[in-house]
Amino acid sequence: MKLAAIDIGSNAARLQISTVLHNDEIVSFKRVEYVRFPLRLGHDVFNFGALTPESEARTTKLMQAYKLLMELHEVEGYMACATSAMRESGNGPEIAKRIEATTGIKIHIIDGQKEAELINNVVVQALDDRQYLHIDVGGGSTELNVYVNRQKINSKSFKIGSVRLLEGKESKGSWRKIEDWVEDNIDSSQEIVAVGTGGNISKLFNLASKLSDTETTLAEIERMRNFIAGFSLDDRINKLRLNADRADVIVPAADIYISVMKWAGADKIIVPDLGLKDGIIQLVYNQLKRRKVSFW
Questions:
Q1: Where are the extended beta strands (E) located within 10-57?
Q2: What is the model's pTM?
Q3: Using CA atoms, how far apart are residues 236 and 238, in angstroms rounded to an integer?
Q4: How far apart are CA 46 and CA 163, in angstroms?
């Protein structure tokens, strides 16, 4: 069985197709296809409050391409979710309806709480009984979640993200709100370990020196942030070989991860190869197993 997830974010839209594997009673998912395209919907929404006709046309074409890939893979179930940019767009819901009418793909515009829940459902698998601060930085929003003994005890979504920072459109007082929330929700008497998800922290982690396959230090993330910031945008693309839509947002994103870690007192960060798309696939599997949803 193959399942798919479409994650339409503020910076890029991703398609992941995974095969469901069964090992006795253990179910796991193996990625067999992954495509990422930089729609940059956040540029429209954070500047103009709505998606432009050009962005609608590009998104429609991309959904048509993703549908063809899912058909070629004979995907049995899928779900498409849109996050910060489309949920803040004044014309987001009507555009989602037009895309569904054209492509047959229904786009679920989810709120920050649902987004965090889907990510948390897979991230929790990488945790033990310590205190963790999960930081997920997207293009338009940042989700923070506190875990103790693998149980989520608090969470909050903030209107600050890599694209929003790049555009200078973060909400007033965002940094202070995050700092205050971290101070109020982290038990400073216990060890705190950060968990980072999102494309930018994954790229920073790949470039950094590591403590293990999934762990590095705050100092290493800072070092890589400063190293990348020392290059012009053209040199980040041509010399560091970063994708164009990653090269401009990676430093603003790093600033969020670094600031939150410092406020929390976390000197280590775990970066599992997990995110919203994995949470969507798990949800699709659970719903398909219960036969609650018809996908095609």
A1: 13-23, 26-37
A2: 0.86
A3: 6
A4: 9
Question: For 143-270, where are the alpha helices, taking DSSP H only?
Answer: 162-166, 174-185, 199-207, 218-229, 233-238, 244-247, 250-264
φ/ψ of 254, rounded to 5, equals -60, -40
Under 8 Å between Cβ of 16 and 66: no
Which of 146-155, 168-177, 248-257, 261-270 has the least mean pLDDT? Answer: 168-177
Task: Kindly state the tokens that stand for 171.
Answer: 């909400």
In the prediction, which pLDDT does 296 show?
Answer: 38
By CB neighbour count within 10 A (0-12 exposed, 13-18 middle, 19+ buried), where does 121 fall?
Answer: middle
- Which three-class secondary structure state does DSSP give residue 89? coil
The partner residues of 135 in beta bridges, in order of sequence, read: 144, 196
Tokens of 87: 């949920």
Q: Are 209 and 289 contacting, i.e. CB atoms less than 8 angstroms apart?
A: no
195-204: per-residue pLDDT in tens?
Answer: 999 999 999 9
Q: Which two tokens stand for residue 279?
A: 């949470």
* Size (the chain), residues: 296
Q: Return the structure tokens found at 295.
A: 């996908």
How many other C-beta atoms lie within 10 A of the C-beta of residue 72? 10
What is the pLDDT of the chain when averaged over all its residues? 93
Please name the residue that has the structure tokens 């495509």: 35
| Region at 171 (left for phi over 0; alpha for psi -120 to 50; beta for the rest) | beta
For the cut 90, the answer to whether the pLDDT of residue 293 exceeds it is no
CA distance 6 to 34: 10
- Residue 16: phi and psi, rounded to 5, are -125, 130
138, 9 in Cβ contact below 8 A? Answer: yes
Summarize pLDDT for 68-106 with one digit per residue, the tens.
Answer: 999 999 999 999 999 999 999 999 999 999 999 999 999
Q: What is the pLDDT of residue 99?
A: 98
Residue 189, burial from CB neighbour count under 10 angstroms (0-12, 13-18, 19+): exposed
